[in-house]
Amino acid sequence: MPDVTDAPPAIRFSHVSKVFGGVKALRDVPFEVGQGEVHCLAGENGCGKSTLIKIITGVYQPETGAEMDLFGERLSAITPTIARQKGIAVIWQDLALFAEMTVAENIAFETMLGNRPRFVDYAALRAKAEAALARLDVTLDLDARLGTLPIAQRQVVAIARALVGEARLIFMDEPTASLTQAETDALLAVVRTLSARGVAVVFVSHRLAEVLEISSRVTVLRDGRLVGVYPTEGMTQARLTELMTGKTFDHQVMARETSADPVMLEVAGLSRKGEFRDVSFVLRRGEVLGLTGLIGAGRTELAHVLFGMTQAEEGRVLLDGREMRFASNRDAVAAGVAYVSEDRLALGLIQPQSISDNAVLSVLRRITGRAGLLSPKAQDDLVAHWVRELAVKIGQPGDAVSTLSGGNQQRVVLAKWLATEPKVLILDCPTVGVDVGARAGIFRIVRDLAAKGLAILLISDEVSEVHVNADRVLHMAGGRIVGEYDPRQTTLPELEAAVYA
Amino acid sequence: MIDRMKRAFGPEVPGLLGFLMLVVVIFGVTAPNFLTGANLGSIAFQLPELGILTLAMLIPIISGGFNLAIIYTANMAGLTLAFVLMQFGGVEAGIGPFLLGIVLALGVGALSGAAMGAVIAYVGAHPILVSLAMMIFLRGLGEFLTKGGDISGFPPYLATLGHGSVLGIPVPLILFGLCAVAWHVLLTRTRHGFAARMIGSNLKAAAYSGVHAKRTLVLIYTLSGVMCAIAGILMLSRFNSVRVGHGEALLLVTVLACFLGGVDPFGGFGRVVPVVIALVVLQVLSSGLNLLGANQHLSTAVWGLFLVGVMILRWGAGRWKERQRGRG
Amino acid sequence: MRDFLRAYPAEAKLLVVLALLVAGLSVAAPEFLTLVNITSLINNNAVNLIWAVGLLVVLIAGGIDISFAVGASVVQYLVVMALIGMGGGGWAVGIALAMAFGIGLGLINAALIHGFRIISIVVTISTFNAFFGLLMFFTSGKSIYSLPDWLSRPIYLWELQTEIGWADIRLPVAVMAVCLLATWFLIRRTTTGRQLYAFGDNPEGARRAGINIWLMQAIAFGWCGMMAGIAGLMQAHVTKEVVPNALIGRELDVLAAVVLGGARLGGGRGSVLGCVLGVALVAVAQNGLNLLGVSPYAFKMVVGIIILAAISTSNIDLAALLAPKRRDRE
Fold first, then answer.
1. Is A59 close to C215, i.e. CB distance below 8 A?
2. Phi, psi torsion values for A290, nearest 5 degrees
3. Which of A266, B124, B127, B187 is deepest in the core (most CB within 10 A)?
4. Where do the DSSP E strands lie in chain B?
5. Could you read off the pLDDT of A331-379 as tens digits, one per residue?
6. Which residues of C touch B265 (CB under 8 A)?
7. CATH topology of domain C2-322
8. What are the chain B neighbours of C304 within 8 Å (beta carbons)?
9. What's the rounded Cα separation, in Å, for the pair B44 and B169?
């Protein structure tokens, strides 16, 4: 890190507040990042991280009285245009890219901004895009339509876009969420290079290990307030979690011996072209089987076949001793397989619809009364039952499910599937977008379900999650199962080393 | 009371009823003949045709789509009935051929709807485009079959369907009432109606939850087609003739009525009762203006401006609520 | 070639279909591939194409406009009334007035959409009813037959006598060419045009990048209105009369042609080439049926079938057929 003592900070303000419809999203939060510093902004969902970024980049206007110093210059009002001119760039969590436009246009998009029309200089545009990609040491087809790229490459495009405008302060909102380990390493290397050149980088990431590895200081927010600014030296993951949630957690391995229990699901030699090959394992009644591996290992694809969304080309699936061939997920549900998708926003729940309707969607037949008509009373009773059973915190059952927090939404998803009385429950990254504090609650439910005899396949890219919560852990890489571990005999660092190798 | 009404029939109902009362009072004062039996009777006879067509538009919109082919589907169904009646002697045709014609007309409506639904569900094409193509096709087919002319001369008992009354209630209104109740039950109390709303909000997520999304889509458009056929039969009996293009001007009015009734243009939300009230408001507006000496065209303009006005009011109400919450 | 297929998959497919159709027709109907027939096809579809490129810009920006055809009727009427009031006028005044009135109507749509956050289909269905109702109310549905002399006189830009008659190109074709070129320039060559694509593609992303949303809506609907106005004036020029309810219903035919040409309902995709091909496919199909002696009543039916067939095969990926190892698939 370069010497920053006499240079003015990249950004500094002493108190910023923001109110949305009466809710204080940010209260008097101070923030400072030195030039060339790699800084981390940490906190649970809804703690105000995103609001803070949007204020700094001029997307939101803060409450009056907020002034900020940018590279030693005092500014009272910021618009997205001013922010860009001052050298602030953001890589948004949802990327904010344009699927129908080419890679080159997406990267060099800022050359096309401004209200006064100008000619588009496609040659200059390509040159800029190429240069930005070169700084990342990546080659991409500049003429490909962005929508045709896999998600990890889109992430690269988003990063390249931030590098185009000679940014001096870059915000990265969860930039590694969908990257493989190798890609993440490459990104971290880029961050270090940028930092060495005097570019300040503010990192927002839920992967705590990464945060501690790369940044020199961390600002922790909770409930819209500042908890504190801490040097990362000497900071541990456990301590950081504590600061973010205000609670303490223990990482005690929960695994039990399950080898004597009857087999519920047996998979033998399952293959699907381009996705996974020769996958075999057994899942026992009452067992939580962890399945981990990097993004692109074929985990979700395997889950899709087990849930009948796609069909395998080779191999067999035996459920409770009977061979199954699901033509669709409706067959799978009828046979007793349930699947909690990793994409809760787009696939797990129907966000604008009510909590109640979402909860009964999978069991409409169960609430159908005489004459084939749905019974509102049966629906209310069923919803009330599961709200109580899973301790879902809701206002009214008629409220849109989108009004719930991530953790409570995930409980609604669980309710929807548990209502089908499944034999096998597949959980695909069940804690994505769920606060660290609320994750424990989800896993408590998972353990309870297993104790009642449900067979659970727990898929996660967070190795620590499966290490703590699973009875056995399968490691998947390159479409194959490459290892099996017992969390009681393998330490977390050993398991992480195996997966991230 | 108002809360119970909102829960049972939708949050738009009290506001729309307020509008209806306002419009009735204004015309009751300014137009001397407005609150007479004759005028109310004429409203009751005019409403059902537009009403049934609007019901046909309603479920595709709730499912996140559109059916721009409703008018020509209705025309084709009417033509089918007319052809059957002509085959069996036109004015002389008995009740047997009439029933056969009805069945075939409903079949034609269902078939055209099912074809659209299948292309939308299994090809994944945009409903606006598919129904537009179907509309162009049916218009062409109808004009081809009739050579652009009209068919008339039906048995006299058809007039009962179009102009008769039972216990003082116009038969078309009874028919519309039955259709509206059927649609209300379909949307609120059946699995298919439930699935239609879910698909309208997020088709993929609904499919992940085990909803047979494609079959539901086909059924939605089939039912829409059947409703069109009922409208077509009603139109035939009211005008005692069938011409392709009859009711053309109503196409976008049905969409307007749906939006006025609070149906979400993006799909997923919509109820029958507020839409019916919206239809009554439109019809009352038009009849009141008519009594004041304006023509149908001014009513059309007022309908458009009325929808804009209501949307602006809804926008304002949303902002106001937000600010209220901000204070609280 | 592959680049073209990849960048314009819908357009490429349409081009193949159109080429097959033209080839078939030129064999089946000898009159089809004659200068007289081709030029009359172009003359007859100039107005539709002007509307099409106007609507294209709105579709690219993620909106839809139902009101443009009745808007064109309103503009026609207003312009001709204004011209008569001025005592004649001329082409320059006429076009300028048509553009100005058209932009005005478009901006009404844009203001309602942006000001009150109402989606475009609701707004334009409302304004469709309002424009048409008010026009019919104030004109009592009366047509204007006595246009200024210069407006009703056909202008031939090019003519040639062939064995079977005169082939000619008339003024509306030149106006159409200018409109096509201007629209192509706007959406391909200017930063504003690329912002329109971006806005239609991902409105939230565009907002965060600092694109002026109001400006986008105003340009899209203003452009569509302007094209509608110009097309309206050209229509009056061709038919030598102004009939207030002559254009109602045309909006859906134009919409079908534009979407057939690859513009996406929902925004972000579409090209001028696609518009041309979409309009051409419908026009050539009708023309061919006519030449083949099919009853004119069957034309529309066949057009409907063609569009349905085109939609139903839209999953076939030409680029993938030509290059089986395409790297990234959706």
1. no
2. -85, 140
3. B127
4. 150-152, 165-166, 169-170, 241-243
5. 999 999 999 998 888 888 999 999 999 999 999 988 898 888 999 999 9
6. 119, 121-122
7. ABC transporter involved in vitamin B12 uptake, BtuC (1.10.3470)
8. 133-141
9. 8
